[in-house]
Write a structure and sequence with these properties.
Elements lengths: L3 E3 L4 H5 L2 E2 L10 E3 L6 E10 L7 H17 L2 E7 L7 E2 H10 L5 E4 L1 H9 L17 H6 L1 E2 L2 E2 L7 E8 H6 L8 H13 L6 E2 L6 H14 L3 H10 L4 H17 L5 H6 L7 H5 L5 E5 L16 E4 L10 E3 L2 E4 L6 H11 L2 H11 L17 H8 L4 E2 L10 H12 L4 H17 L1
Parallel strand pairs: 4-5, 4-7, 11-12, 14-16
Antiparallel strand pairs: 1-4, 2-6, 3-5, 7-15, 8-9, 10-12, 10-13, 10-14
Helix pairs in contact: 2-13, 2-14, 8-10, 10-17, 16-17
Length: 430
């Protein structure tokens, strides 16, 4: 077996992994079985990692699984998958295929897949789980469709900009708050010989777009009305999205992002080495990447994690991956009980303390490392943008990611906006 390990519920775990079609190759899909009369199957991704390095996120999730096994007398069998490179289809395709064919009990899912499967009535309603009552309101709203809670995360995945503060100090630059600030920093870096100021991959550039698009929607005091207008068609998603796409296009045109490399690069693999070597001053990643030795946890420079530039200053982008139960799960009762234990305050406290992340429970909090303090301060001020919101008829995270990739591949901003208009019209007809 290649030197890879499983990883559950960190930002990279679902959003950055790839897959191939419904025919599942034996060398990619791996089942880890345990002996028990009562078995629950969990489909989740695998994270590529460095040899001989502990995978903290995987350990955190497994601790909660062990708690469920011990309390309930069940065994959780992992079915896992990862892909080799950008030429493979995504992990989402495999998850959709397996859930539509009722192949597993529990699924670790991306927000766009959660929304698709909920629309198809392929996921159980988790609202009545005892421990669902402890969830933060923002977690519930992000994962509720038609009054049903269809998935529950073990962490709130917050995305930010990872910056090499030493390089900013070297060139006497303040950390950027607005898009204009950000472009000026990139200009200075470029003029001082840094070839590509922003390290990017094919998964996470949508974070820039979402921060610029929805800074006012989520922080202007009129969120419900604005979402209602978008859902009815009175307002256009493309009008919200255009500034973010124009911003990305400007960065591409000025050479601040290598569009060709980004289009082909997996998350962290494509830009991580240059960032850690001090060649690239800015990358984007999820909260846990600052804690994990497999990503940016031990840089040789002063690293800070800040929000994305927006009209309202540095803006965290929060996305909700989640664990769901298949509507026709073979072991439905045991699966529901297993998930209930995994998302209990007791289990989520273990998870959060192990992985040093934001908990979905309103009763659990953990101190963050100094590098994450700027991002955490904004979140504690209740300043953030949701990258996924099941209350929006047009799914946000996955669709924005796909359309950003079209921009990277040469599509114009107008063509990208036309794609949003088309998707919005289709969503209104459902």
């Amino acid at each position: 077996m290649k030197k890879i390990t499983m990883c559950c519920l960190a930002g990279i775990t679902v959003l950055a992994l790839a897959a191939c079609g419904s025919a599942l190759p034996n060398d990619r899909v791996i089942t880890f079985e345990k002996e028990s009369e009562r078995v629950v199957t969990l489909f989740s991704p695998m994270e590529k990692t460095l040899p001989d390095v502990d995978n903290v996120a995987r350990s955190a999730s497994e601790k909660t699984v062990i708690m469920a096994e011990e309390k309930l007398g069940v065994a959780v069998d992992y079915i896992t998958y990862t892909a080799e490179d950008y030429q493979d289809k995504t992990y989402d395709d495999i998850a959709l295929d397996r859930a539509r064919n009722d192949m597993d009990d529990l699924y670790l899912l991306n927000p766009d897949v959660i929304q698709k499967l909920a629309e198809e009535n392929k996921l159980m309603d988790l609202s009545d789980l005892e421990n669902a009552k402890n969830l933060r309101d923002v977690v519930k709203s992000a994962n509720e469709m038609d009054g049903k809670l269809v998935a529950i995360p073990q962490e709130v995945v917050a995305y930010g900009l990872f910056v090499n503060k030493d390089l900013f100090d070297q060139y006497h630059l303040e950390l950027p708050d607005t898009p204009e600030d950000f472009l000026e920093c990139c200009r200075v870096f470029k003029e001082n010989g840094i070839e590509t100021p922003v390290g990017a991959n094919r998964w996470w550039l949508e974070t820039f777009v979402l921060a610029l698009a929805y800074a006012d929607l989520y922080n202007g005091g009129n969120t419900e009305a604005e979402i209602a207008a978008l859902n009815s068609g009175e307002a256009k998603y493309s009008d919200y999205m255009r500034p973010g796409f124009e911003f990305l296009q400007e960065m591409i045109d000025r050479g601040y992002i290598d569009a060709k490399k980004a289009y082909m690069s997996e998350a962290i693999e494509g830009e991580g080495a240059d960032f850690l070597a001090g060649k690239t001053p800015i990358v984007m990643a999820y909260w846990s990447a600052a804690n994990s030795e497999t990503a940016y946890g031990n840089p040789d420079f002063n690293m800070l994690v800040i929000g994305f530039p927006s009209s309202r200053g540095q803006m965290p982008v929060m996305s909700m991956t989640g664990i769901a139960v298949g509507i026709n799960a073979k072991h439905a009762e045991d699966a529901m009980n297993t998930l209930n234990v995994m998302v209990s305050d007791e289990a989520l406290r273990v998870y959060a303390e192990t992985n040093k992340v934001i908990s979905p429970s309103k009763n659990v909090s953990v101190d963050c490392i100094p590098a994450l303090k700027p991002l955490n301060d904004r979140i504690n001020e209740n300043v953030f943008v949701l990258g996924s919101n099941a209350g929006m008829k047009l799914e946000q995270w996955g669709n924005t990611c796909i359309i950003v990739r079209k921009l990277l591949n040469g599509a114009t901003v107008d063509e990208c906006m036309a794609e949003f208009d088309k998707l919005q019209e289709e969503s209104r007809k459902k």
